[in-house]
Amino acid sequence: MHELIKLNFINLAGAVGLIAISIGLSTWERIGLEFNLVLATGRTILQLVVLGYVLDFIFALDNSWAVLAILAGMLTLTAIVARNRITQKMPQVLLLVWGAMFISTTVTLVYTNFLIIQPDRWYEPQYIIPLAAIVLGNAMNASAISGERLVSLINANYQEIETHLSLGATPQQAVVQYRKDAIRAGLIPTLNQMMIIGMVTLPEIFTGQLLSGVNPREAASYQIVIMCIIAFANLLTTVLMTRGLCRQFFNFAAQLIR
Prior knowledge:
This protein is an all-alpha fold.
């Protein structure tokens, strides 16, 4: 395999040239996306440049506390984004999402680090930061989808839930089907990706490893590990998050809160 071709400023300017062409096309077709394209491109460049310098510093620092600080920041940001995607405002939802993602990410990374990859140090930035980013990004989407689906289902079926409660069902029994449907909804994107991966699409991680010169078989092995940990982390996140979210709809007397 050939070594990775390093890109200089001219190469990056050429890539940005594609955005300039896109802006011209948007103007020509009067689509009105010129400002959005400029803003999105500017944010992309700024955020990735800052990320590159931050991670370069963390890698050079090679300190476990610095790695944990980065992971905590990533966890908090993804939890806030997931919370904001749930339209109904309820107390403690951010804490629920944060806690669910914290538990699922911790369990996943501990399992992966100690039983699968087994790096020399548990906090090896080369492994734990990218894996945490992958897990958190996917868990964020899964929790947002399942949380929004659960909220909408409960709000749309108040009378049915109250009927179950009046017949002696517990709150958990009254919403169990809606919770299952919400968990399934959160896992649909992951399952769909697993069904077609390697046939219709090449995943970004696999492609990135190929570009960096990794042997295709080795890249495939890492991608298998990544897809397995994504599926597990997403399921665990949605299970924990929906369980806690359901409790927000009932008071201490097991009555449905409108």
